[in-house]
Amino acid sequence: MSTPFLALALTLLTAQGLLGAFDTLYHHELTVALPRQRAAVPELRIHATRSLLYGAVFAAMAWLQFHGAWVWPIVLVVLTEIGLTLWDFVVEDATRRLPASERITHTVLAINGGALFGFYGWQLWQWHALPTGISLAHAGAFQCVLSVFAAGVFASGIRDGLAARDLTQAADTRNAFARLPFQRVLVTGGTGFIGSALVGELIDAGHAVTVLSRDTGKAAQQFGGRVRCVGSLDDIDAADPYDVVVNLAGAPIVGMPWTEKRRALLRQSRIGTTQALGAWLARTQHAPRVWIQASAIGYYGSRPAAELLDETSMAGKGFATDLCREWEAAARAALRPEVRQVTLRLGIVFGPGGALPQLLRPIQFGLGGRMGDGTQVISWIHRADLLDIMAQAMEDDSMQGVYNATAPQPICQEEFAFTAGQVLRRPIWFPIPAAPLRWLLGEMAELFFDGQCVLPSRLMAAGYLFRYPDVRSALEAEITYRA
Question: pTM (2 decimals)?
Fold first, then answer.
C-alpha cells in the first residue's frame, strides 16, 4: 500500500541526493580537499558511515516496501542517520570554519531531510499495520534515479573511509617539534596553510603558542582553544616571555591580479606586520632566542632553467623580487643584536592544501598538460620538510641568515605534469598556452610561466636529510587514493 506521502518522500530523497552531491563535490572536494586533510579524519569517518547508511536508504526506498515488524529496523537506520548528522555538525564546528555556502547547503539539507523522513515515517506507520514482510516496490522512474544515487553514495562512503584510514596510517607522521625542550612561540600567519600545520604540531608536542590573527575567533576555533589568540601585538604584555618568533604573515600572492591596490595589500600584510613585530621586540623585556622569518624564492626573479641559484645569488627584478627584498630588509631592521634570525626563502610548498591541489586539479579532470613551453623550473618543498627545517632552526644555534627552503631536486613544469599524471593515472595531453594568460594576469603570470632553479645549498651543506627530495615521493605522499 502506497500513499501520496511515499511519492513526496521519494521526491525529497531525490532532491537530497542532488544537494548532497553538490555539497560533496564542491565543498568537500574542490573547496577544502577534505579527504587530504589529516585534521579531518573524524569528519571523514562520520561521512563514510553516513554515506553507507544513506546508500542503503536510497536503495531500500527505491526498491522495497517494509511491512509489519520490518518497519522497526528502518526506523533504527533513520534515527542513526539523524544522530550522525547532528554529530557531524558538532565535529565540523570543532575542526574547521565552514564557508557560508556550505552552512547554507547543510541547513537546506537538514530541512529537506526532516521533511523527507517525516513523510516516509508516515508511510512506515501505515505499513506497520500490515502483515510482516518485504515486498517489491513499484516506484517508476524513481527506481533508476535513486539506484544511481545509491551507487554514488556508497562509492563516496567507501572513498571517505579509505581516505580516513590512509590518513590515520600515514607513515610520515613524526613530529619534529617533539624532541625540543618546552618552547613559548609567537606565530604570525598561524591560520594559513603553513602556519596551521606549524601551530598544530607545536601544540601537539606540548609547546605554548600565541597566534597573531585578524580573526581571533576563527583562530581559537581552528585550534580548539589550545592556543592564545591576539588581534594585535599591543595585546601582549611587555613582560610576557617568548623563546621563538615565527613570522609567516602575508596575503596570498597568487589570486587577484597585481593592481596597485593589490600590491599595497601584499606589501602591508608582510612588511607592515614585520615592522609591528619589530616594535613589539623593541619593548619586550624578554627577547626571544630566535626569529624565523619567511621569504620566498621570488627574491631571485625569473631566471633561465640552466642557471643554478643558491643563497649567494643576486636578486632578480620585478615586483615579486622587490616584495621579498623589502620583507627581508624589514625583518633585519627589526632585529635586536641578541636575537638569532633565520630567513627561509620558500619554494612552492606542497602538501594537503596550498598550491598543490590547484596544480593537480586540471590533471585530475583529465585536462593536464604543460604550461607554456614547459621548460620553466619549479623549485618546491614539501610542507613536512619545511616544518622539520623550522624545528631545526629553533634547535640549532649555528643556523643563522638566509636559507633556501627548497627540495634538492627542482623539476621543469613539463616533467612535473608528466609525473603527476603518472601518479594520478591521468593522461597529459592538454597544453596551456602562455600568451592569453600573460595578457590576462599581467606580471603575476610569471608565477606560472617563468621559474628559477633554486638549490638548498646551505641546508645540504649542514647535512639536512629531506623526507621528500623528489617530486614523485612528495606527490605519492599526498595522493592517498587513485581515482
Answer: 0.75
